[in-house]
Amino acid sequence: MQGRMKQHQLTKVEIDELLAKVEVGRIATLKSNGFPYVVPVHFVYIDEKIYIHGLSRGEKIDNLLRDNRVGFEIDVMDGIIPHETLVCDTNTAYRSVVLEGRATLVSVMEEKIKVLKAVVQKYTPQLSHLEFPEKMLKATGVIEITPTACTGKYYR
């Protein structure tokens, strides 16, 4: 474990709060050539799992169908901490969560709708009274990430 990680670990409660609040995360999948593919995504955190919505087809879907191991990261930059006399000792106040896990596609329609309602509630609550058109539900993919490891750290 990194030195800073030993001294600046977020608690489980702090990790859960960040995962519930932060608006953009990054998912990493493995491309067929072995290189990572990282994209920013909107997500929701429900019952200790990460859910991501998007098109039901595309590179990240192809990647996770081939190899369901994924990484996921969020961060919040709280500000710059300038050193008074040494520019190289300027630091950043931040909080971050990094996890690895296994991803699957949600296939049960009721579960997909539950996740999509949570997405709408998080990002556009003013639209939460609207129903999802059937055509849109068919074209939307929902990825469920079950974490196998998760760490959070901070610096203030």
Write up what this structure looks like.
The longest helix has 15 residues, at about 110-125. Helices cover about 30% and strands about 45% of the residues. The radius of gyration is 18 Å and the shape is globular. The chain has five helices and seven strands, in the order ααββββαββααβ. The chain has helices spanning about 5, 10-20, 60-65, 110-125, 135-140; strands spanning about 25-30, 35-40, 45, 50-55, 70-80, 90-105, 140-155. It has a seven-stranded antiparallel β-sheet with strand order 2-1-5-6-7-4-3, with helices on both faces. The protein has about 160 residues and is an alpha+beta fold. A hairpin with a 2-residue loop joins strand 3 and strand 4.
Task: Walk me through the topology.
Blueprint: H1 3-7, H2 12-21, E1 25-30, E2 36-41, E3 43-46, E4 49-55, H3 59-66, E5 69-81, E6 91-105, H4 109-123, H5 134-139, E7 140-155
Antiparallel strand pairs: 1-2, 1-5, 3-4, 4-7, 5-6, 6-7
Largest sheet geometry: 7 strands, antiparallel
Strand composition percent: 35-45%
Compute the separation of the termini in Å: 19 Å
Helix content: 25-40%
What is the molecular shape?
A: globular
Mean pLDDT, to the nearest integer, reads 94
What string gives the helices and strands in order? Answer: HHEEEEHEEHHE
User: What's the arrangement of strands in the largest beta sheet?
Assistant: 2-1-5-6-7-4-3
Please give the number of β-strands. Answer: 7
Report the structural category: alpha+beta
Weakly predicted, low-confidence segments = none
Cα radius of gyration in angstroms: 18 Å
Number of DSSP helices?
5
